[in-house]
Amino acid sequence: MYSVLRLLAFLVPLGILWFFFPIFREFWWLAALFAALIGISISLLFLRNPLSDASRAIYAKRSSKVASAPSDEDIEDAGAPAAEGTDQSGPDVNGPDANGSGDAGSRHAA
C-alpha cells in the first residue's frame, strides 16, 4: 500500500504539471523533476505513518522467518561431536620436512 501511495504522490503532480502548464509538455524532464520534488515532500509530510507500518510489517515477517530456521552456528555445533574423533587437518605442508630434505628454509635440496 505504501508503494502505491508513493507512486501516486509522484504521478498526480506530474499529470497536473503536464495538463495545466503547457510549457512542461515541451520540457518533460523538468516536469518529472518538479513532480519528484513534490512527491518527496508529500511523502515526507503525509506518509510517515504508512512508512512506519510497512517497516514494522517487513521486520516482523523477516524476524519470524529467521527465528524458525536454525542458524549456521547451531548446525555446526550439532555436527561437531560426531567429528571429534577424526583428525581432518591433513599433513603439515609447511612443517620442517615439507620438501623432503629436512631443510625447512629451502625448497631445493643442496
Characterization of the model:
It contains five helices and no strands. The termini are far apart. It has a domain at 2-69. The chain has helices at 2-20, 23-26, 28-46, 48-68, 72-79. The chain has 110 residues and is mostly helical.
Short synopsis of the structure:
With 110 residues, the chain is mainly α. It is built from 5 helices and no strands.
Entry keywords:
elongated
Sequence-ordered SSE layout with sheet pairings:
Layout: H1 2-20, H2 23-26, H3 28-46, H4 48-68, H5 72-79
Mean pLDDT: 78
Ranges with pLDDT <50 over ≥5 residues?
none
| Rg calc | 32 Å
Main sheet properties: none
First and last CA, distance:
77 Å
* SS elements, strand count: 0
- Percentage of residues assigned to helices: 55-70%
Please state roughly what percent of the residues sit in beta strands, choosing from under 5%, 5-15%, 15-25%, 25-35%, 35-45% or over 45%.
Answer: under 5%
SSE series? HHHHH
